[in-house]
Amino acid sequence: MLDGNALPALVKGIRFDVDTTNKAPSGMKVDLPGKIRQGAWGEGSNDIGVGFLSLFFQLYDSDRQTLLQQYYTPTSLFSLSVDTLTPHAPTHHRRNAFSGQNQTPSSTNLSGYFPQSRNLLRTNGAQARATRLHNGRDQIAQAFRSIPQTRHPIDDPAAFVADGFQVQIGSTAGIMVSVHGEFYEQSDRGGELRRSFDRTFLLGPPAQTNPGSQCVVVSDLLVLRPWSGRDAWVPEDNAVAPAASGVDPQALVEEMRRRTGMNEQYTRILLQECHGDLEAGMQRFEEAKV
Fold it and tell me: Which candidate in 86, 183, 219, 262 could, as Cys together with 77 as Cys, close a disulfide (CB 3.0–4.6 Å)?
């Protein structure tokens, strides 16, 4: 039955045009799911990406107007999406709600953000989707004013994880930065609610509209969720390859790249999976080529 109409009897089943005859090379072990690792920064993205984040959240919490002038341009894009489906941690609405625990209150109620949410699964109609995609400083400033004040615990590195890598923006080089973490939504009466968020930035090169900035925000996508804890990015045992005594980890990466021709991102992944053993990594690389 499709759109209320029965399929012809000659249709025995629906198939996808995918070759299912190829199998993983024999002898190649694939462990799923993969272990949780620390955030990774691709070649050339670390200095600009980390520097941007350290200042961004400080200004976002304290002076959003200065933030707009510093990093956003007349063509920057911003949108907010509310995610109510991701599993979340137990919520409580007052301190000491759990015996012996003095935790900041949290809540699954994100209805205050719904008027701005551009979640495409819930936002129907081209007009609503268009008006909730904010273009340029003026529209983004108006959107920022509608979002409650926040406090990001930037002095607690365990509260965040970030990744970055280089991308092409047309003919220009850019950096994609993805951040996952938590923040505290502040009310006018001084209370706080802990929330989780994901934020993805596309950063472009400096522009004349933003003198003194190392980069500008081409697009900014903010996803808000009820607080879901930090377990999703806590590295598991052996997830980060320990360097052998006296071995420079970066030199290990460069040697592997020289031998395999892979980029830095995939080289690091392979070395992590082989616990920093260069020869084991080469063996796995050769097996995957068969």
Answer: 219
